[in-house]
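so i finally got all the pieces together for this one. its two components total, 335 residues if u count the protein bits. some of the lines might not be protein, just check the labels. i wanna see the whole assembly predicted at once instead of chain by chain like last time, that was a mess tbh
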Amino acid sequence: MKRALIIAGLIVALVVGAYVGLRVSRPYVFAGTVIQSPESSYDFTLQSASGPVSLSDFRGKVVVLYFGYTFCPDVCPTTMSDLATAMKLLDEKADDVQVIMVSVDPERDTPKIMKEYVQAFDPAFIGLSGTSEQIAATAAKYGVFYAKQEGSDATGYLISHTATVMVIDAGGRLKLLEDFGTTPEDMAADLKHVIT
Amino acid sequence: MRKAVAAPVPLTTGCSASGMSVTDVRGRPSPSGATSAAFYLTIENHGAEADRLASADSSTCAPTELHEMYDRGKGVMGMRPVTGVDLPAGASVMLRPGGLHVMCIDRLADFAPGDHVALTLEFQNAGTIEVDVTIRESR
C-alpha cells in the first residue's frame, strides 16, 4: 500500500514537472514573420514637420515603420489605430518603441500633413514625407511597392501599396514583418519580445 | 472646418419593410490632415429576394462612394470604387476594414468620438434606408 502511494506520488510529480518544464522552456512564437537580417536596414533621411529625420536617430529604440498615405481611408487608419492600441498595451515599454509612418504620396502629403495625421492616433508617432525620389529610394530599400491607380472622378488617383508593418530592432536591423490585420494584442506581444 | 452635427435621434440601426436590416454603422474619429474617411456597417437581407446596395450618400461627405480594398498579393493592398454591393437572400454582408467600405471622400466636418453622421443607403429593391453613423474607436 505504502509503495503504491509512493509510485503514484512519483507519477504525479513527473507529470506536473514535465508540464511546468514544457511551459517554461517553450520559445515565444512571433505573430509576425521573423527576418534574420545580418545587416542594418537602410538609413533613410526624410522630412518631418520639424526637420530631417533619419532611421539612425532612433538607434537603441525599436522602430515600427509603415508606408501609407493620408488619403487612404481604410487600411492606413486601421493600421495606425491598431498601432496606437498596441502602444497603450505596452504601457511604459512604449517609450522603447518609435512608430514612423512614411508617405507614399509625397505629392499630396506634406511633412505638416503627415504630422497632423499620425499625431491624431498617438502624439508620439512621427510622420515623414520627402521628394518623390527620396520616397522611391526608401521604399525600394524596404521592398515596399506602391503605385498610383485610377480612382473615381471624386477621389482622383488612389495608391496601391504594401500594407506590411516593419519592425526594426534597437540595433537597426529589420526583425519582423507584421501583415495587415495583425491584432494590436499580437503586435504588442511581438514588440515586447523585440525590445531588449 | 465645422463639427459634425449630432443627429437629433441617433439611430444606429436601420430597417425596412422588405426585411433589410442595417446594424453596427460606425466610423473612426478622423485625424486632422486626413480629408477622407470610411464608414463600416453590417447589412442583413432577411428577405426572400436578392437585393443590391446601389449607393450611399451623406451630406457631410462630398461625395460619398462605395469602395473596396483588395489584396494584390505580396502584402500589397489596393482600393477601388465599386458600383454596388450584392446582397443575396438571407445573406449578411459586412462592410469592414480591409474589405468594403462607404468612402466619405471629402469630409465636410471633423469626426470626433460620440459624433453622429446621417447616411442614406439606396437599395435596388428595398429602397432608401436612413442610418446614423456613430463615430467611435473600433476595428
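Chain B has a mean pLDDT of 88.
Chain B has one domain: 2-43+56-114+124-135.
anyway lmk what u think
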